[in-house]
Amino acid sequence: MKQDLYACITAAEFPAQALLRLRSDLESEPVAVLEGRPPLETVCSLNRPARLKGAALHMTRLEAEGIQGLRQIPRSEETETAARAALLECATHFSPRLEDVSRGTACACVLDIAGTERLFGPPETLAERLRASLASAGFRASIAVSANFHTARLKAAATRGITVIPPHQESTALGKLPLDVLGLDAEPAETFAIWGIRTLGELAALPEIDLITRLGPQAAEWRSLALGAQPHTFQPIEPEFTLKEFCAFDTPVDQSDSLLFVAARMIDCLVARASARAFALASLVLHMELEGGRVYRRVIRPATPTIDRKFLLKLLQLEIAAHPPQAAVLLVGLTAEAGQSSKVQLGLFAPQMPEPSRLDVTIARLKAIAGEDRVGSPVLEDTHRPGSFHLESFVVADSAFAPPAEHPRLALRRMRPAVPVRVELRGLKPVAFHDNQRCFKVVAAYGPWKTSGCWWSSDGWNTEEWDVLAETTAGSVACLLVRNHQLSNNGRSVWQLEAYYD
Amino acid sequence: MTDGAGDAEYIELHAASAFSFLAAASQPEALAERAQQLNMPALALADRNGLYGVARFHTMAKKCGVRAHIGAEIAVSSFTTQLTPASWLPHQFPAAPPRLLLLCASQAGYQNLCQLITRFKMRETAKAEGAATLDDLEEFSAGLICLTGGDEGPLAATLAREGSQAARKQAQRLTSIYGCGNLYLELQRHHQREEECRNQSLLRLAESLSLPVIATNGVRYATEKDREILDVLTSIRHHTSLDRAGRLLSSNDARELRRTQCMAALFADLPEATANTRIVSDRLEFTLDNLGYEFPHAPVPDGETMDSFLEKRVAEGVLKRYGSPAKRHLLAKARAQVAHELKLIAKLGFAGYFLIVWEIVRYCQQHGILAQGRGSAANSAVCYALEITAVDPVGMELLFERFLNENRGEWPDIDLDLPSGDQREQVIQHVYERYGQLGAAMTANVISYRGRSAAREVGKALGFDDDQLARLSGLVGHWEWRGENDTMARNFQQAGFDARHPRIAKYLDLCMRMQNLPRHLGQHSGGMVICAGMLNRVVPLERASMPGRTVIQWDKEDCADLGLIKVDLLGLGMMAVLKDCIEIIPTHYKKEIDLATLPEDPVVYQTLCKADTVGMFQVESRAQMASIPHNAPTRFYDLVVQVAIIRPGPIVGKMMHPYMRRRQGKEEVTYAHPSLEPVLKRTLGVPLFQEQLLRMAMTVASFTGAEAEELRRAVGMRRSMQRMKDLEGRLRDGMTRNGIGPEAQDNIVQGISSFAMYGFPESHAASFALIAYASAYLKVHYLAAFICGLLNNQPMGFYSPSVLIKDAQRHGLRVRPICVQHSQWPCTLEAALDNLNFPATLGAPGPMLLGTRDSNHSQQSTETNLSLRIGLNYIKGLRQSSAAAILEARNHAGVFASIDDLARRVPALNRKELVALASAGALNALDEVAHRRDALWQVEQAGRPVGPLLRRAAPANTGAPTPLRAMTTDERLAADYAGTGITTGPHPMAYQRESLRQQGILSAHELETRAGTPNVRIAGRVICRQRPGTAKGFVFLSLEDETGIANIILTPDVFEQNRLIVTRTRFLIVAGKLQNQDGVVHVKAQTLTPLGGPTNGPDQARNFQ
Q1: Which CATH superfamily is domain A244-342+355-397 in?
Q2: Which residue in chain A has the smallest CA separation from B943?
C-alpha cells in the first residue's frame, strides 16, 4: 500500500511578499502594506524590518506614519494574484496534485508528494529543492513534510524553514505549536483562551468525551488535528482557465509595428488555447502600462466570438490606430474572454444580412476615421444644456417603433454649423441681424429663454435664445437666434442663427 | 415678454430661505437685507412645510425696516404629484406632492397655518416631511391667502398632465376652500418657454373663473450667485454629484430676489399681476410681533391670584430656608430681597412662570427625583425659597438683576438639573401630560453646516473621490471657524493645496459660503416650551426622532427673540449619584442627609486642598487637580471660583494664572481701573464671571442696563461674532469717554472677548459648586454610598469605574467581587464585617493605607462595617432580564447549590451568560467550584443542556476534577478587566512592586516625599491621556498604581518621539524630572518605556483631546 506523504508550502505575509518580490530595491527596507478605504487604512502585512521598527498588524495609517522610515504601500490584489500563480507554478513542477490551503494573509498549498522519491530524492532533498525554487522566484516560504496532510499544513504555518516529520511523531511535532494555527472561530478560540489552553499539546491532553460534551463534535476534530491524526481527503485544485498573456519590454516601445508583432503572437497563443477547449474569443482586453505611470486600456468586442486570427489582429490594429497610446509602452497584456463559437444556420428565405465580422470591421473603420464618440445612435442627455446628446452603440431595439407623439410638435431645421450673425439690439432685444449675405428685419421677438450650467467646471455654458419672426427680401422666416455668453472670454457674447422653424 | 420698466411697485411674496432645508440657498437674514438693498418695503418668507426661519427673518427684517410677511409652502397630498420633465426627457425627479403657498393675513391665519402644519406633521408616526390633505386645508383656511405656486404648485402639474379642464376644477376647489378673494393664480417668469406656455394657460383660466393673477419670482436665493449654493444643496438632497444631477439642478439663475423694476419690466404686459402684490401685501396685516403667545396660567385656589399665591409660597419657603438658627441672621435680609423680587415679578407678570417651575420641582420632590436649578436662576431668592435652586443668593450676595431686570424685556430662564436617564425622561413626560401633546414641546436645535460637514458634502457634490475627500475634510477638522474669513484659505495653503487652482478655489469658496446654512432640525437637549393655550397655534410642532417627543420648529434663540418661555430640563449624572446617596445613607448609615443643609466642613476643604478629588463633580479633572492646591479652597466661595476658573475662557483669556498668583499672595491685587475695584474685589481684581463683565461694562463704559444685557447675550451666543464686534466698538468709545487708557481698554476687552464661547455666570458656578461640595462631602463622609452611586450611574465623570474602585480602596473601602449568591443588579452596600483581607505587601487596602492616606476619615467606624458589593450590571454580556431571573430564583428558593443548580433554576441564562459569570469569578462561591477555570469547565457542560430525548444518554457530571489549571494572577486580572472592566483585587501594579522597587522605580505615593530627588522613575497604568487645545501640544498622562495617581507631563518633542508608546501602551515606565510646586507633584517625562504589562486587559484609559 502506498504511504501518504505531503509537503506544505506556506509563504507568510504574502501581500508584502507579493509586492516586494518585484522590488528588490526594497528588500531591506521596512515596508508595511495597507488595506482599507481611506482614511481608515490599516496595516495588513509587513516585512521583518518593519516589525523590528515597531510596526504591527492592524495599525492605522496614522500610527504607521509615526514610525520613521517605514514605507507604506497599498495592497494590490492583482499583484497577489499574479504572485500566487507564480508560486503555484513553482509547486506544480514538483507535483501535479496541489491543494490550496491559504488562510489569512498567508499563501499556502499542500503537495501530494507520495512516490516522488525517484524523481526528487528523499523528502528532505525535495523540500530543499522546492525551497530553492521558490526562493529563485522571489518567495520566502516555510516547508513541512509529513505523512499527515494537516500536520504538514499546521507545522508549515507555524514554523520557519524546513521541517520533515518522521512517521508517528506528529503529535510531538505539533505539541508546542500555538492554538491559533488551527484557525478556530472566535467563539471556540475565546473559550480555549479563558480555559488557558494555548498550545496544541494542551488541547490534545484534554479528555476527548468531556471536550465533545462541552464544545460539540467539532472539538473531536480539533483534538485529532492537535494529535496529528486527522485524516484528510485530498482535493486537488483545478488550474484556473484564464486567457491572459503579458509581455514586458526591456525598453519602452513606441513603434506600433513592434507592438503589433508581439500582439499577433499573443493572439495566436490565446486562440490556440481557446481552440484547444473548443472556445472562441468573445472579447480582447488590451492593457498597456505606459511611461509616466499611465495605463492604457481598450476593449475589443467582435459581434460574435471568433477564432479568426487575422480578423482579431485587424480589429486590434484599428483600435490602436484610432487611439494611439500617448507614451511609450512598458508592458502589454492581452486578456481574452472565452465564448462559444457560433455557427449560423443560413435560412433559404432569410434576408441577406451583412456578415457580422465585416460589420464590426466597418464600424471600427468608421470610428477610426470619425472618432469613437461620433458613430452610433444619438441619445438625449440628462442636462439643461441645449441640444445635448451623445452616441451609443447601435442596438437592435425590441420594439421597432416608438409610439407617436400625442400632440404635433414644431420641427426645427438646425443649422450645422450654426451661422454666426451680427445682431442689432434695442435694449436687450434683437431688431435686425445679418448673416453676411442677407439682412433680416425682426418683426417679432420672444425671449430671452435662458439656460446656464456646469458653473463648477470649465465646461460651463450660459446661453439665451430668442424666437424671432424676421423678414428678408425673400419673404418672412421664423427662426431661432442663440446668444452664447462665453464664460471664459471676459463675458463676451456670440450670436448665432441656430435654426429655422418649419 | 417685452421690456420697458414700469413704475408699478412690486413686492416679493414667494421667497424661500435655507430653512427649506436643502431646497433654498440663502439665510432668512440675507433675504431681509437684500430686500432692504432693493428698497422693497415688504417681503414674504415661505419655507417648505414649516416656519423654521420666520423668527430670524422677522428679527432681521425689523432691523432693516422691511415688513416681514409670514407664510409657508404647504405640500398637499390630495393632488397629483409635482411637475416633472416630459417622459421622453431623461431625468431623475422623484415623485413629490405639489406645494401651495399660504400667506398669513391675520393672527387667526397664522394660528391656522401653525395648526395646519402641526396637523400633518404629527400625523406621521416618526420624523417626516408629511403632507396636508384638502380636508386639512379646509379646516384651517381662515385668515390665509393662497397662491397657487409656480412649477412646484398643483396647477402646473395638472395643466401639463391632464389639461385645462382638470386645472379648472382644481382652481374651483381651491376657491371653495379659500374664497374668491383669497386665491391668486401665481405667474412666474424665469425665462423658460414651458413656463410661459403655462402662464398663458393660467391667464385663460383666471379670465374664465374671474380669479386674480399675481406675479412672484419663486425666490430660492438672495442673489444670482447663490444659485451655485442651491445647486450644491440640490445635489446633496438627492445624494448625487453636480455632474450627475442633470435636470435636478436649476436651469438658470433667475430665482434671485429681483428688483421691482426688473419684475415690472418682465410683467409689463400684465401690470395687474405686479399691482396685486402690493394689494396682497397690504392685506397681510399679521406680523410676529403679534404672536399670541401666553405662558400658561398656573392653577391657583379660589380667591387667590397667581401673585398672591406665589407670595405665600415664597413666604413659606423663606421661613423654611432661613428659619434655622444658622441662617436666622439672614432672615430679614432675605425677606427684603424676596419682597423686592416679588414686586418686580408681579410688575412683569411672571408669577405664573415661577409657579409652573415650582410645580415641576414639586413633582420631582414627590417622586423622589432630585432637581436643582442652575444658571442665572440661582441669583434669585424667590427661586431659592421655592426650592427651585439650592444656592443661597442672600448669603452669597448674588446679583438678582443678572436673572431678571425691568429693562431686559425678556422672560426669565430657569434651567433645572435632573438625574440623567429615566428620571429626566419621567419629568419631561410629566410636562407633556400636564400641558398636553399640543401644549408643550422641546425646542429645536438647528444643525448647520460647519467646517467638516460643509467640506465633506461640498466635496462629494463636486465629485471628489474618497481619498481627496478624506484629505480635504481631514484638513478642515483643524480649522478655526471663528477667525477671519480667510482662515480657511490659509489652512489650505499650509496643507499644500493650491487655493488658486480653479477647482480647489471653487471648493474653498463654496465651503465658506455654505457655513452656517441649516442642514436639518434636531432636538435641543432639554429645553421645553410650555404654552397657556395651544402651543400649536403659536409655532408648528412636529415629531422628533426620539419616540414620544415633539419638537417646535424654532431653536432656543428664536424662542428668546420671540418671547417664548422655556424651561430647560437637563440631565446630570452627578444628580443621579446624589439622589442614590440620599436613599442609601439612611439605610446603611442610619442617618438622614439633607443636601440643602450640608455643613461647611473643614475636613472636606482639607481633602479638596490635597487634590484628593477622584469622582467629585467638576473638580476631579487633571487640570482641576493641578490647580486646586494653589487655590486652596477654605470656604464655599473659593469652590465657586475653582469651578469657574478651569475653563477654556479664563485660561485663554489669561485670567487663571493672575488669579492663582494673587490668591497665593505672590502678586499684588490690582485693578485695570480704580473704578473696577467694587466689581472685582471678590475675585482679587481678575474678572471671572459674566456678572462681573456686565458690571464692568456698566462701570467703565457707562453702558445702560439694556446695553450691558445685549453684551451679555452676545457673549453667550454662537452666532454673535458680528454683534460682538459692534459692541466692542461701543465699549471702547465709552471707555475712551471715561478716560480709560488704551492698555487698560485692551485688557478689559480681552477679558470680555474670552468669554465669547465659554462664559460662566457666577450663579451657575455657584450651583455647580454646590453639587461639587455635596459630592466632596459625600465622598469624605459616606465613601461607600458615594462610590456605590457613582458606579451605578456610569458612564459619567472623568474616570473609569476601575479607577474609581481603586481610589475607593485606597481610601479604605472594601470592595467585594461580583457573586451570583450575593450581588444584586446594581452595586450595593453590605453591612456585615468579613474576612476579605488582602496581603499588605501587595499594597491592598488596609489600616496601613488608611493611616497614611486618609487620616481624616470621620466615618471610619461605619465605613469599616460597610463594604461595596459589585453588581451583576458590571458583567459584560449579561442581560438585565437574566440577572432578574437569577435574583428571583435566589429570593424564591435560596442560594444556589452548584452550577448545575444555577443552570437548572435559571433557564433564562444562556451559555454565553454562564461563561461571562464564570469568567468574572461570580460563580466562585458555589459549592464544587474550586476556581474560576473549574467554573468555566463546568458551565460549558451546564450551558449546553441536552434535549429530553438524549437526556438519559448524556454523560452525567462525574465530579471528576477539572483538567484545567487554575488561573495565574495575570490571567485573573485579564479576565476581570475583559469581563467586567474592573478588578476588586489588588491593583495590577501591586504584583510588580517588589521587582519595581529593586529597579529603583518609585510609587505614586513615594513621589510626594521625594522633593529633593530631581530625577525619578515611576511606573503605572495609564488611566488618562490628555492633549488640551490650550496646552500648545503638551500631553498630560495620569499613571495609576496601587498607592495613587502620578501626573506626567510630556513636551511636544517627547510626545512626538514616543507617540506610539504614549498612545498604545497601557503600562509605562516614565523617567524624568520631578517637579513639586506648592504640593502639586508631577514628573516631566524624558524617556518612556513600555512596562511588561501584568495584564492584557483592555485599554481603559480615557483619552481627551
Answers
A1: DNA polymerase, Y-family, little finger domain (3.30.1490.100)
A2: A214
